TrEMBL record:
Signal peptide positions on this chain: 1-22
Domain of life assignment: Bacteria
Stated name of the protein: VCBS repeat-containing protein
Record keywords: Signal
Amino acid sequence: MKKILLTIGAVLLVLGCACVCAAEPLKAFVSPFNVVGVANEDKLQVALQHMMASRLDPAYVQVVDSGENADLLINGSFTQFGEIFSFDVLLTHAQDGHVSKVFEQGDKQADFFLALGRVTDKINRDLAAKQTAAPSDISSHGYAIAPSATSPRVNRQQSSTPVTPETYVIPAQDTGKSARALPGLQIDGVMRGLALGRKLASGEREVFVAGDNVLRMYLLADALTPLDEVSIPLPGTIVALDTADLDHDNVPELYVSILDRGTFTSSVFDVVDGKLKEIATDLEWAFRGVGMELESRTVYAQKLGTDGQFYGDVAVLSKSGNHFEAKQSIALPRFGHVFNFARIASPSGDPLYLVLDVDGHPVVSTLDGKEIWQGEEVLGGSETILNKPETIPGNLENYRWLFMEQRIMTLPDGTILIPQNEGKFSFGNNRAYNRHTMYAFEWTGNFLAEKWHSPKISSYLADFAMDFNSKEIILLGVEKRPSLLYKGRSSISTKRIN
């Protein structure tokens, strides 16, 4: 009996040690940052290395002086354009080669340490999630087990292009057939803009949608509950909708891009007691919000010229009280404008631009405008016209049109979401889309590689947004076109990705 008890005690001791070992902090090496666009780059490289290392949670990492035997390699870059800056960090786990990416950006120098703190918090949350819930480290009995001694490690000399894991995958098989959006979340009228607000304690989410001349606010849960509606005076037309919390008061602003007789006369709204309140009007820019979180989102702005084309560089919008100013201009590559660009990163973390050209072909360029790749597939596609027809000498069609473009969304792990609208009768300036597909890509360093795509949905995708915390894509589709006796119908559907 005594031997049995001793044996059981020894087994429990071994299991306990295994659990403790599994919970030990990872040995992490923070390399000097790659710094672009600032003076004294050498000093800042080391300073950022030390600042990030000091902010990492010791419960999850033990900072070491060399990457030789490190479990985790942390490679960061800091890029600055004027006052705009960005932190981009690659986390490489030596045990299995898993690579994840996090980034944060700011639009003024006062945000520097806040952005550094936010990106480090994201790293700590990422490590906490992996250490506490990694299924590969749990046995079938629920015990934490130590990694195998034969587990592969990253060959740092040979692995020049790490493979990003497919973190974001829509769990649906592509049957090659079209599918309809789930019924129940129908909206009267043809809507063209969608933006998300706050997630409330009740689990409901604020959702804003826009038609040609109407702006609506809903609560989204199992159904859509209307809260408020505002009309936009004719001849103004809403072309885009975005949200951001530029003043960091935990109440997002609603940025409404309005086109009126060849120029932008845009507005900004606040939500006050569940109602939409206009706080600025007749602004001369179109808006596009970029970023996962409302409080860290950047709103870009650009004017429309007298020729019906976008004028000047894209600028960053700033808010002071109810006053808005566009400054810190960014020169985009050829074809780029406020509605059709996104920033992506190379496998080594270097920033690049991705734009869709006038025909919808994806084009990747360096920050100085040098094109390094152009795809053949046509992506995006919008029916919203941004300028009135204008006669162009020598143009066989006699008209040149400028169309709105679909959002290009870059996720924290580097996944790039780009929708594709299609239609049997869509060619040239004649656009009548009736089905769409959501594509996910990654930049390999040489081309955009497809990671997954959704089934084809039998509706025109007018706009989409993403709730990063719940990993849900919210889609605004047009299901029925208007007629003399019918005002059309739109719908909001949700796709969860994992």
